[in-house]
Amino acid sequence: MSGPKQFYDYVDANQDSFIQRLSEAVAIPSVSTDPARRDDVHRMGSWLESQLNKYGVTTRAVPLGQQELEGKVLEYPPAILGRIGDDLSKKTVLIYGHFDVQPADKSDGWNTEPFQLHVDRESGKMYGRGSTDDKGPVLGWLNVLEAHHTLGLELPINLRFCFEGLEEDGSQGLDELIATEVAKGVEGWFHGVDCVCISDNYWLNTRTPCLTYGLRGIAYYQVVVSGPASDLHSGLGGSIYEPMTTLILLLGKLVSVEGRILIPGIYDGIAAADSSELQKYQDIDFSVADLEKIAGAPIALSEDRVTVMMGRTREPSLSLHGIEGAYSGAGGKTVIPSTVSGKFSLRLVPPQTPEDITKKVLSYIEAEFAKLNTKLKMKVELLGGGNPWVADTKHWNYEAAQRATEAIWGQTPNYTREGGSIPVTLTFAQNLGVNVLLLPMGRGDDGAHSTNEKLDISNFINGTKLLGTYLYEVANISAQK
């Protein structure tokens, strides 16, 4: 291993205290999308800042503005910026993570209380909301800092931190903060950053570690169809145009059951995979069975694993998410809803952007609505979006991460693209002009955003070693070049 032996020994000797700290973090229900939990998100940010300060990190809590929710004006949780080390002879690595989490309640189907870390020593798993997304990885960096601080070891590189509490709610204000700091030049918090490392993703499976070099973007829409002044008795059916019927017809024209997007021009400009990229997919340790295990049912669109992987990560997709305004309770209710809305999103790949795709989406839906020749009203709204991102895997940042992964896990990592989105990844790449790496801690079965979210103890401890080793490999590569 490239790091000092006392670092690895310290991590092994302090597993219980690291797990206890994760328990403290999970116990703070920092749900950013719930106004009732906003104080908890602020509390989580303050807790994290105090932890960073303990280990010599200089921090600043940066206000990100306000929002109005349910008639109340709420302060956005501040971003926590940190810095340690200013040695011009060393590389400077920027670390990003988030301390907010998805909603969770025992009644959702959790086997344990979601905001109490349940440590199952027999299975080696730790269950709790945020354990893998993203409190476990963020605390992995705290573990690295604690080990070096306590042992009196000098960090091999300079570190900058950017932790936010609104990732699960659209990262409100973060893009503006990053742009502002970059515009400050030498006075900015990110001046001198050589690369970025993000641990907010997962292995494809439960066997093989990975490095992620691409993410799909997203464009999220709402279609609203309205007609009657109020909900009506279904006895009027057959005599009026019904909003629900029209909405379902429109949603059904967006995508085929095989996943083919039906909007004209959506696939324009997407380059075919060359032989080098195809080889990456051939080399990935992932099967159709792995996908169906994640899905919990044998429902893969293809029996060819490369086709499935490319469909999940390299090609655009369109998913329907739900209908609002219609009756969904137990029993029957014979009502014709006056206004209904359907929500759907597209996952985007280069060169697609939300702006370009939105023009095509609006044009298509408006044309299809006009063909129905109803007396109803319809509008389409873009609710949010983010651009796709792909990084250069031949950069020394990835070389360092591969060496570190091989040292800790004894395996060459898969090089993967993810089907999901982390918009700030592209924001860092574009504003800082540096290479961005996604270095995961958790496994593919961790269930981020789902019930019974977990993190394996082995991934938490070895993941801590991985993060520390990555820093030493960055330093080693710098010394060689």
Describe this protein's structure.
It is a single chain. This protein has 481 residues and is of the alpha+beta class. Helices cover 35% and strands 22% of the residues. The protein contains 13 helices and 20 strands. The strands form six sheets. It has a six-stranded mixed beta sheet, sandwiched between helices. The protein has a four-stranded antiparallel beta sheet with strand order 13-15-11-16. Strand 2 and strand 3 form a beta hairpin. Helix 1 (5-13) packs across helix 4, helix 2 (15-26) crosses helix 4 and helix 4 (135-151) packs across helix 13.
In short:
With 481 residues, this protein is an alpha+beta fold.
Instruction: Please report the number of helical segments.
Output: 13
SS-based class: alpha+beta
CATH C-level label of the largest domain? Alpha Beta
The spatial strand order of the largest sheet comes to: 1-4-8-5-9-19
Question: What share of the residues lie within helices?
Answer: 25-40%
**Name of the CATH homologous superfamily of the largest domain:** Zn peptidases
Strand content: 15-25%
**Which residues sit in consecutive blocks of at least 5 with pLDDT less than 50?**
none
The global form is: globular
* Total domains: 2
Using the 3D structure, state the CATH architecture of the largest domain: 3-Layer(aba) Sandwich
Rg, nearest Å: 24 Å
